[in-house]
Known about the structure:
Layout: H1 2-12, E1 17-22, E2 27-38, E3 40-45, E4 51-56, E5 61-69, E6 76-84, E7 87-96, E8 99-109, E9 112-116, E10 119-125, E11 132-138, E12 141-149, E13 153-159, E14 166-174, E15 177-185
Antiparallel strand pairs: 1-2, 2-5, 3-4, 3-6, 6-7, 7-8, 9-10, 10-13, 11-12, 11-14, 14-15
Amino acid sequence: xxxxxxxxxxxxxxxxxxxxxxxxxxxxxxxxxxxxxxxxxxxxxxxxxxxxxxxxxxxxxxxxxxxxxxxxxxxxxxxxxxxxxxxxxxxxxxxxxxxxxxxxxxxxxxxxxxxxxxxxxxxxxxxxxxxxxxxxxxxxxxxxxxxxxxxxxxxxxxxxxxxxxxxxxxxxxxxxxxxxxxxxxx
Length: 186
C-alpha cells in the first residue's frame, strides 16, 4: 500500500536530479535537470539554518548550471536545495580541509490538500518522520490544532462541517517546514 502511494505521488510531481561536482578545493559545478520546464528556487543554508545564497530563476527551463565559489564560506556543513513546483531536492555539502564533500541527495514533496464537500483531505509523505502539527486559522486566530503523528504515510480527513462560513488558513508543520492551504467555507 505504501509503495503504491509513493509511486502515485512520485509520478504526479517533478522528478529533478541534482549533481554537485567539485572541480577545485573551493569550487563546484552545480547542475539540476528536470523533466518539464519550471522556475527553480535555489537556496543554500549554513548549519545554523541561515541563508547564505538564494536565487529564483525568472525563466522556465529544464536545466540549471552554475559554478559555485565557496572560498568565502567558513568551513562547515551547508544544505543546498532546489525547489521546483511542489518538489524539493536537497544535498548537504561539507566545505573544508582542502576539499568539498558532497552527500547523497534527498527528495521531498509538499503535502496534498483537497476540500471534498465539508472534508479537508490531507496526504503527506513524512520522510523525516517528524511530529506533524495541523493548525487551522481564521483571521490569524487558532480555531483548531492537533498533533497528527509521525507516520511516514500520513492520510487524514478532517470534518469542517461545524465551522462558520469564511476563509481559513490550514498550516501543516513538519519540523522546520510549514505548508499552507486556504479553505473557503460557504
